[in-house]
Amino acid sequence: MSPPRIDPRTNRVTRQYVGGDGADAIRWGAGAVWVGDHKIGQLWKIDANRIP
Question: Dihedral through CA 8, CA 12, CA 18, CA 22, nearest 10?
């Protein structure tokens, strides 16, 4: 799973997350990207240090 990426120079999305039919929330906070999937009841944390 790849987190979304926005080019700060152009303010355009250069990479986007496309999830399953239950993944419906992506948020940034506490140094991580958080993805929630209500259909299967999971929350994933992607550490900012792992984002290229």
Answer: 80
Domain tally, the chain: 1
pLDDT at 6 over 60: yes
* Digit-coded pLDDT (tens) for 16-43: 666 666 666 788 899 898 888 877 888 8
Residue 11 within a domain:
no
Show the domain range for 27.
21-52
* DSSP codes of every residue in 2-14: ---EEETTTTEEE
Q: Cα(51)–Cα(37) distance, rounded to whole angstroms? A: 20
Answer whether 22's CB lies under 8 Å from 41's CB.
Answer: no
* 3 part of a folded domain: no
